[in-house]
Amino acid sequence: MNKSVFAPCVLALTMGMWGCQQSEEQPEVISQTITNLNADYAPLVFNPGGPPTRPAETKKYTLFNFRTGQIIPNADSASGSWDIGFRATSIIFNSGTSGPGTAAAQVVVGTFDEIREAPESGFIQDNKNAGPSGFAVLSSPLTPGSTATNHWWQNTGATTSTIVSPIAGRVIVVRTADGKYVKMEILSYYENAPASPNNMVDKDRFYTFRYVYQPAESRSFE
To answer: In terms of pTM, does the model score above 0.85?
Structure first.
């Protein structure tokens, strides 16, 4: 065979294969906003001479899968099909004492858009032997005068306030059971996300949050 013809053919074949490999694109990140996720809503019943109660609450978590963007039935709570669960101000992850999975999370300080990559370490599973309360994210509020840690997601604004307000600059980063990464920001705890919630009028236990899910083997959110 004429070598002057063979060499360009090999080069063309090699370049063709290289071009084919380069054209294989990574799956795009998934960005979603979830509105009015019901976290065991039950209307307050005001009792004369005593604190209000919620006799209608089910005390069950609303389970959610980041990849599908869907609520998972409680009947599947013993499976790996869910990542995160919500009940009132409590947030759990499918791991440790909360579920059979290996999901883990941490609260990162920074704005949602600024956090472009998941941390390499620092993730916590729900385990009564780890963290201030045994959970990756605390259900109690950050009250005035408390020392801030990276476990709180909400505060009550003031000692006399009972409004649940997401803390600005707190982003929850999750490592799912299958090793994927998610960043999420809770925007509101009240139905339809009112700008100035009034807990005598607005229904609470309705989460609005946004998240970015990375389906590839990457910590990048871009």
So the answer is: no
